[in-house]
Amino acid sequence: MVCSLQLGLEAGQRDGRTMTKYSGFKVFAQALRNNRGWGRAWRDPDPQPAYDVIIIGGGGHGLATAYYLAKEHGIKRVAVLEKGWLGGGNLGRNTTIVRSNYMENGNTQFYEHSLKLWENLSQDLNYNVMFSQRGYLGLLHSYGQLDAGRQRVHAMKLNGIEASFLTREQVQEKAPYLDMSMNARYPILGGVLQQRAGTARHDAVAWGFARAADRQGVDIIQQCEVLGFIWKGLKIVGVETTRGDIRAPKVTSAVAGNSGVLAEKAGFQLPIESHLLQAFVTEPIKPLVNCVIASFGMLYYISQSDKGGLVLGGSLDGYNSYAQRGNLPKVEHILSIGKALMPCLSRLRILRHWGGIMDMTMDGSPIICKTPVDGFYMSAGWCYGGFKATPGAGWCLAHTIAKDEPHPLSAGYTIDRFRRGATINESGTGPVPGHH
Amino acid sequence: MRIECPCCGLRDHREFDYGGDALRQRPAHNDTDIDRWSDYVFMRRNPSGLHREFWQHIYGCRQWIVVSRDTVSHQILSVCLASGAHGAGQGLERA
Ligand SMILES: Cc1cc2nc3c(=O)[nH]c(=O)nc-3n(C[C@H](O)[C@H](O)[C@H](O)COP(=O)(O)OP(=O)(O)OC[C@H]3O[C@@H](n4cnc5c(N)ncnc54)[C@H](O)[C@@H]3O)c2cc1C
Ligand SMILES: [Zn+2]
Q1: How many domains does chain B have?
Q2: Listed residue (A397, A414, A404) closest to A255, CA to CA
Q3: What ipTM does the predicted assembly reach?
Q4: Contact, A174 vs A100, CB < 8 A?
Q5: Tens digits of per-residue pLDDT, A142-189?
Q6: B93 in contact with A, Cβ within 8 Å
Q7: Fold of A136-197+273-361
Q8: Inter-chain CB proximity B1 and A327 less than 8 Å
Q9: Do residue A269 and residue B44 have CB atoms under 8 angstroms apart?
Q10: B43 touches chain A (CB under 8 A)
Q11: Are A270 and B39 inside 8 Å of each other by CB?
Q12: Looking at ligand 1, which residue's alpha carbon is closest to its atom 4?
């Protein structure tokens, strides 16, 4: 007893509650005890029969929504229901790029708010999410793209977001391993740099939000799949799950690529197709790529993880899919772009590659809103960009649920924007998900 | 994934371009109902399981075809030419 008090373990931890606040001192003290005293990071409760809010999906968005509901709005009788394990969906499969270099009103401000939350997230959650602001460099390959790049810098600056335009020489200085020859398959004429952008550790984001939400009293229930809804007239008042019925006056979906499945069960369609996106990691090497490098034109991105592996990805496989594994033509396509931009890549072996299911909307922008069904809310349509949105989307969805009105930053992200002609189409490519 | 084109036989899916949900109903040209048009342009069936979808054999005969495919296993159950060039979804019974 004396010993554990000295080591700063609060009494609550022994009855299964997770009250330990992490600190440098704790790390030191635990080292003296061979790290045997840490305890669980969050509880593993059985579902209660009823809650104030049920969140379907224990990915980043579900967990962040639970955390902000409890912390910002005082709504603590909240359950997060996850059919698998935390971070087994896209949260654990993405390439972890965080940035706010958008151009369309509605997107720019939302993603910048999210980036600001990222900047203080480790402190706020008392969990190191390893957010590293190593910069995001978007390459420009043609004179048209140079103009578009300058336009992007101006749009960001007008919104108070720092950005800089890099000349060809400045790109070469920053990333000397890129193929800068004018005969290259993809000649590099310049770049756009957002220095505050970067990467974070995806698993830590799941665990950090889960632990912080749990500390606020949220029940995180894994191995609990939502199979259908409980209705009272035309209103949803709960969910049927593999672990029994659970009721709540407010139910929200945060299931990323599975949004269409739940919407169908709730009786409406979405402007969404579920698509496959693959990603790759190479064998680890010494530090080489010190920022995120992306090609706006080619839809390709690469960064280096703290373990040394190069993490890279590209565009969708291109057809509706719920299989979390991709096809080979895309492997060839993405790796050949990679090699053309960065010839030294050809010497590396791919260690792993995997796929995730992405909810692609018809304008490439997300959905955070009350749905057409009473009692049912939704965060969906995150396309390529939902990881960077994790804190921002949780923030805005929690507000929407608590106050029953949209947060000003996500007010444009409704389902009916399509019908009203108010789409937010960053790429200007029309209702074809494969083109966003 | 390989697709059996009714004209060209079994070909790699790389030769095809994807056209999405084939059960959408295109409203009549003089239809002024905004909801029907917005449903047609933006809303999609997005099932986990059997999906009827358009593909075009762009690097072959350039025909539009309708493929019935399982979106979980990627298994293709049937392929036919997209009938009725004027109407997406017309000529197909609705799932
Ligand atoms: C390969 C790849 C690379 C990506 N790269 C980036 C990137 O670099 N930057 C970026 O910003 N974004 C990126 N994304 C997008 C980002 O990962 C997603 O948009 C985001 O993670 C989605 O939100 P989430 O974390 O809540 O989703 P998920 O982690 O998928 O969470 C949804 C959860 O819901 C659960 N679920 C589904 N149905 C049910 C049910 N019926 N009952 C209970 N639970 C259910 C799932 O098991 C899953 O855990 C990438 C995605 C992929 C696939
Ligand atoms: Zn053909």
Answers
A1: 1
A2: A397
A3: 0.91
A4: no
A5: 999 999 999 999 999 999 999 999 999 999 999 999 999 999 999 999
A6: no
A7: D-Amino Acid Oxidase; Chain A, domain 2 (3.30.9)
A8: yes
A9: yes
A10: yes
A11: no
A12: A94
B56 burial class (0-12, 13-18, 19+ CB within 10 angstroms)? Answer: middle
Q: Which CATH topology does A44-128+201-271+363-435 take?
A: FAD/NAD(P)-binding domain (3.50.50)
Q: Which of B13, B26, B22 is nearest to B75 (CA)?
A: B13
* Sequence-separated (6 or more) residues with CB below 8 Å from residue B74: A321, A323, B1
The pair of structure tokens assigned to A302 is: 């690469």
Pocket of ligand 1 (CB under 6 A): A 56-62, 81-84, 88-91, 93-97, 225-226, 254-256, 258, 277-279, 313, 356, 358, 382, 384-388
Judge whether B51 lies within some domain: yes
Tell me the per-residue pLDDT of A89-148, one tens digit each, with 9 for 90 and over: 999 999 999 999 999 999 999 999 999 999 999 999 999 999 999 999 999 999 999 999
CA–centroid distance, B49 to ligand 2, in Å, is 25
The residue type found at A315 is S
Torsion angle of the four alpha carbons B61, B63, B68, B70, in this order, in degrees rounded to the nearest 10: 60
CATH number at residue B79: 3.30.2270.10
Could you tell me which of A132, A162, A102 has the C-alpha nearest to residue A413?
A: A102
What's the pLDDT score for residue A19?
64
Distance A315 CA to ligand 2 centre (A): 25
Range of the domain at B69: 2-86
Would you say residue A8 has pLDDT above 60?
A: no
Q: What are the residues facing A191 on neighbouring strands? A: A139, A166
Domain ranges (residues) in chain A: 44-128+201-271+363-435, 136-197+273-361
Note whether residue B12 is domain-resident: yes
Task: Identify whether B91 is part of a domain.
Answer: no
Give A270's Cβ-side CA count (13 Å radius): 37
Tokens of A138: 């978007």
To probe the interface with A, which of B1, B39, B44, B50 has the most A CB atoms within 10 Å? B44
Contact predicate A382/A413, CB 8 Å: no
- For residue B95, being part of any structural domain is answered with no
d(CA A278, CA A300) in angstroms, rounded, equals: 11
Cα A146 to Cα A152: distance, rounded to the nearest angstrom: 10
Q: Which two tokens stand for residue A371?
A: 């749905």
- For A213-224, the pLDDT digits (tens) are 999 999 999 999
